[in-house]
Design a protein that fits this description.
The protein has 162 residues and is α+β, with helices and mostly antiparallel strands. It has 4 helices and 7 strands, in the order αβαββαβαβββ. It has a 7-stranded antiparallel β-sheet with strand order 1-2-3-7-6-5-4, with no helix packed on it.
Length: 162
């Protein structure tokens, strides 16, 4: 009988302790994301990828992201290295193609690039495109660096206006 009473008390108490610890950890993660002032070395969450239409291809590495929010818009900055097939999959998933990239064009503004420390000056091999969509769909500015053959680095700024 004592064992049953003990279990009736201990199991719910253990569950409460575990739940509290998980909840606390989740809050700390969200607090760290909110305090970020630049690119974070991690995949954006699935929700962020869906909201901003930035489906980072599996196998991309390294992946960095940064989210900004204001009263009238929110932007997700994403950078990742992939291969030719990953680039084609990514562009197809957002509704465009590799053929739409314009060689020599940097579509991310210097102001946007400065927010996250990107530098598109110099002799890099860049190609870019803009995908403008009506609100509430996100619009994207994509600049791809082809400096390392076979391993393009994709820079995307996806903005949702309210």
């Amino acid at each position: 009988m004592a064992v049953i009473v003990f279990l009736l008390i201990a199991l719910p108490a253990g569950y409460i302790v575990i739940s509290a610890e998980q909840s606390r950890g989740s809050g700390e993660t969200k607090e760290a994301e909110a305090a970020a002032t630049g690119l974070t070395n991690a995949f954006p969450s699935k929700v962020q990828q869906r909201i901003y239409n930035v489906p980072v291809p599996l196998g991309s590495t390294p992946v960095y992201y940064y989210e900004t929010n204001s009263w009238d818009s929110s932007s997700l900055f994403v950078q990742f290295r992939t291969n030719g097939a990953g680039l084609a999959r990514y562009l197809k998933a957002i509704g465009t193609s590799v053929d739409a990239l314009k060689k020599g064009e940097v579509t991310i503004t210097p102001r946007q690039a400065a927010q996250v420390g990107w530098d598109f000056t110099g002799d890099g091999q860049f190609a870019g495109l803009r995908e403008h969509r009506d609100t509430p769909q996100p619009s994207q500015q994509i600049t791809v660096s082809f400096d390392e053959p076979g391993h393009p680095v994709v820079h995307t700024v996806s903005t949702v206006a309210f």
